[in-house]
């Protein structure tokens, strides 16, 4: 089933002389995984600028299915994006040498969303401060952040640091 996820469950049941419901129970995790991969592929194609109709044709689904999947993005019905799911969705596009910059950029954006999506606003602000090159001092006692331009009190870090401008340093 995994090598041919479009193989009919009804056909499998017939060949194995079991009820279709039995086969459905056997392959439910595989079909759910396949659907999740398709949803991620739809998201990637959407971010590449394809229309829902073009995505539907690419994934051999109906346009309204693609519309439903894309509207699920950002809510609990959309699969939780993992690195493994992302890699599986991307692996369908031949080898790494065949991935153009557009796909690679989308994948990187999705990775960032996976990593930083659950961060609080304070954590995002800290990241932006660090990215800007601005120094920070963390006060572990009071659990608050102070920017470097404010001299922290010695008790904030447990000892005094000499200034680089100090000739004795």
Question: How would you summarize the topology of this molecule?
Answer:
Layout (H helix, E strand, L loop, with lengths): L8 H8 L3 H28 L4 H8 L3 H10 L10 H9 L9 H16 L4 H11 L4 E4 L4 E4 L6 H4 L12
Antiparallel strand pairs: 1-2
Helix pairs in contact: 1-2, 2-3, 2-5, 3-4
Structure explained in plain terms:
There is one protein chain. This protein is mainly α. The chain has two domains: 9-118, no CATH class; 120-169, no CATH class. It has eight helices and two strands, in the order H-H-H-H-H-H-H-E-E-H. The chain has a two-stranded antiparallel ribbon. A hairpin with a 4-residue loop joins strand 1 and strand 2. Helix 2 (20-47) crosses helix 5 (83-91). It starts with 8 loop residues before the first helix and ends in a 12-residue tail after the last helix. 9% of the residues are buried.
In a few lines, what is going on in this structure?
The chain is mainly alpha-helical and 169 residues long. Helices cover 56% and strands 5% of the residues. A hairpin with a 4-residue loop joins strand 1 (136-139) and strand 2.
Which features would summarize this protein structure in a list?
56% helix
Numbering strands along the chain, what is their spatial order in the largest sheet?
1-2
How far apart the termini lie comes to: 70 Å
The tally of beta strands, per DSSP, is 2
User: Helix share of residues?
Assistant: 55-70%
Rg estimate, integer Å: 25 Å
Largest sheet: 2 strands, antiparallel
Principal-axis shape equals elongated
Question: What is the number of independent domains?
Answer: 2
> Structural class of the secondary structure composition?
mainly alpha
- The string of secondary-structure elements, in order, is HHHHHHHEEH
Poorly predicted regions are 157-162
Specify the oligomeric state.
Answer: single chain
| Beta-strand residue fraction | under 5%
Number of helices: 8
Give the overall average pLDDT: 76
């Amino acid at each position: 089933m995994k090598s041919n996820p479009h193989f009919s469950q009804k056909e499998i049941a017939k060949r194995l002389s079991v009820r279709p419901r039995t086969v459905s129970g056997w392959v439910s995790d595989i079909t759910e995984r396949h659907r999740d991969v398709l949803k991620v592929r739809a998201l990637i194609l959407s971010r590449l600028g394809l229309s829902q109709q073009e995505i539907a044709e690419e994934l051999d689904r109906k346009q309204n299915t693609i519309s439903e999947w894309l509207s699920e993005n950002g809510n609990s019905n959309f699969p939780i994006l993992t690195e493994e799911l992302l890699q599986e969705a991307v692996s369908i596009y031949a080898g790494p040498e065949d991935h153009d910059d557009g796909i690679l950029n989308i994948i990187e954006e999705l990775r960032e969303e996976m990593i930083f999506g659950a961060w609080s606003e304070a954590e995002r602000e800290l990241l932006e401060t660090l990215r800007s090159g601005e120094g920070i001092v963390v006060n572990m006692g009071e659990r608050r952040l102070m920017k470097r331009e404010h001299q922290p009190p010695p008790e904030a870090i447990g000892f005094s640091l000499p200034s680089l401008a100090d000739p004795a340093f």
